[in-house]
Design a protein that fits this description.
The chain is an alpha+beta fold. It is 27% helix and 30% strand. The chain has three helices and five strands; from the N terminus they run E-H-E-H-H-E-E-E. Strand 1, helix 1 (22-32) and strand 2 form a beta-alpha-beta unit.
Length: 97
């Protein structure tokens, strides 16, 4: 059996251009057609970012991204995350098929 694995540190979906563009993250993930996806630095809900970025989702990023990419995917939280003054970051594993 063969399968494709992708690991990706999404940096809260904020690129080097300092723009929040979750659709860019989604396009990159889609382009790899991975069966298993490991995501790092996935942002949970964050009121300050929600006020700063007009397109900030009203839910944790892992839910927002998964809804747009995978119907019926298995989502596994690999740790409880790190909370600090900038929010909560968690790593996720997504089994897409």
């Amino acid at each position: 059996m063969r399968f494709r694995v992708l690991t990706y540190n999404i940096h809260r979906a904020i690129g080097v251009d300092r723009r929040f563009r979750p659709e860019r993250i989604i396009r990159i993930i889609e382009s790899h057609q991975a069966d298993i996806v490991f995501l790092q630095e996935v942002q949970g809900e964050h009121e300050r970012h929600a006020g700063r970025y007009a397109n900030w989702p009203g839910k944790p990023q892992h839910e927002f991204i998964a809804e747009r990419l995978w119907t019926g995917a298995s989502l596994i939280i690999s740790d409880q995350g790190i909370s600090n003054e900038t929010g909560t970051y968690t790593d996720f594993i997504v089994l897409t098929r």
